[in-house]
Amino acid sequence: MIQKSLSSPPGAGRLSARFRNINIILFGMAFCVMAAVMASAFNKVIKKVSSDYAASYASGAASALSAHIVKELGLMAKAAHSKEVVEWLADEENQDKKLLAYEEMSGIVGELYSYNLYVGVENSRHEYNVEDKYEADNIMPFITLDEKKPEDAWYFGCVNSKSEYQLDVAMDNERQKKRVWLDYKVVQKGVTLGVLCTGLDFTNVAGELFSQYDKNEMRGFIIDENGIIHIDSSFVVDGKVTYNAFEAEIAKKLSDPEFLAEVNSHPRGKDGYFLATGPPLVMEMPTGPYRYMTVAPIRFTTWSAVILSDFSSLLNMSLFMPVFLTMLVLLILFSLAVNTASRRLIFVPLGKLEHSLSRLKENSEQRVYGLERCDELGNLSNTIQDLFTKANYDALTGIHNRRFMEENFPRLLDLLARAGGLLSVIMLDVDFFKKYNDAYGHEEGDACLRALARTLADSLPRGNDFAARYGGEEFVAVLPNTDEAGARLMAEELLTRVRDLTLPHAESQAAPFVTVSIGVTTGQVVYPQTWEAYLKRADEALYRSKQNGRNQYTFLALETQ
Predict the structure, then answer these.
(1) What pLDDT, in 10s, does the model give residues 229-276?
(2) Per the omega criterion (within 30 degrees of 0), is the bond before 528 cis?
(3) Which residue in the list 135, 473, 532, 559 is annotated as catalytic?
(4) CATH number of the domain that 123 lies in?
(5) Any long-range contacts for 39-45 (C-beta under 8 Å, 24+ apart)?
(6) Are residues 108 and 20 in the same domain?
(7) Together in a domain, 19 and 166
(8) pLDDT tens digits, 162-197
């Protein structure tokens, strides 16, 4: 057996490691790309959802106040258009009409937010107060309205207005509360008979609107058409407003350029700061503690709800960390599964195939791994085995061919030279083989060669020995670490075994059966010997055997240089 000087490199192991490393790199790249894409997508979703939330909350605040106003306006319209109220204001001194009107209004007052109603009569400029519970004897005016008094401006402003009703925010001096005042005209045939007035407790309404919000994430304002702040959610505590006097303009409270540009695009005192109808205006703020600002018009008024919000804190990326971690774990498990499956299905069998090929170089009898498999690796193994057989074995006799001998002989010499070992070479030739072919035919000649090859191979005593067909009817046996005595014994045994085959050979001049002539040489392997020197010396010994009558062996020691 030919020993290798160096162990085979673990090619399959390197391939497996390379595949694993490439797989890890690709996995990392895929995860980074996917994470970036998902982060971008999530960011867009977060922006969209945050914007929608901001618009929804602003609309909710505006709608809540609008709902209160709409309810109050409906009740005021009902009172202002009632027959009893119109007839009484047209005939103020008629007690019966006054009682009927008061009865009608007191029923409506019970449904009003403030539970009271002020009535101003145009003809007399008298002002009455209607409670939900009243005494008939108390139906008396308590003041006379005066255009010069600021506190009576609500009445004259509504009378002179072209609108059917007016809204205003002002203090109720009697109750010391800030209110949303609703002033509604009472008209008969185009003539204004008077004004009905009620007020929502603005501090309570505003408290209801803003107490639900987290002040760290939202701040709200209610502004009028001049941009004056009437409520600031930062002054709402436990549903109540702690400070009522707001005179600051919204433009002085907020410095965001986009907001100011939007504010300046609407003339003051005309249509209000913002459109009275339409969807909420959502702006992303580049600076400040809040990310979004939403302006929602309050229906039936020229006011707007301005909401500053930071809903991104509710939808920050940390909320999606479980998703990212789950995906990362799944990707890692997938990568491990791919690596494990690849190793088990590809690289482990490939490593075994590589190992068997390495051993095949050392031992020509070694079988290639995977010959019995029915997959691609099996096809590869059988192809390699077939190629190896054709490359290293003689097709006719089944023993090694000359190519195998010439390829392995130099390495064998190198190994023996290092250890100072002996080497014996035997060369044999079939006696009068041409005559055998002529007499018995080529098929019998081939059978004769196969029989001699088997005999030669069976005679090799050790696994390190090998035999090869050198050409035609010539064969060579290479015996490492065999001395002269061992080589002679081997030659004698070969002669005997061939004779024992008793293959008939009538044309032979040496014997009536097939015989062989043998040449033997032995030498101690040293540098710079060549394998050709051993073959040449064995061939010289073979030639002498033929000259001396064949059917014998001749030993010639290797000539030293």
Answers:
(1) 877 777 766 656 565 555 677 777 776 776 667 666 654 444 455 555
(2) yes
(3) 473
(4) 3.30.450.20
(5) 39/317, 42/317, 42/320
(6) yes
(7) yes
(8) 889 888 777 666 666 667 788 999 999 889 999 999
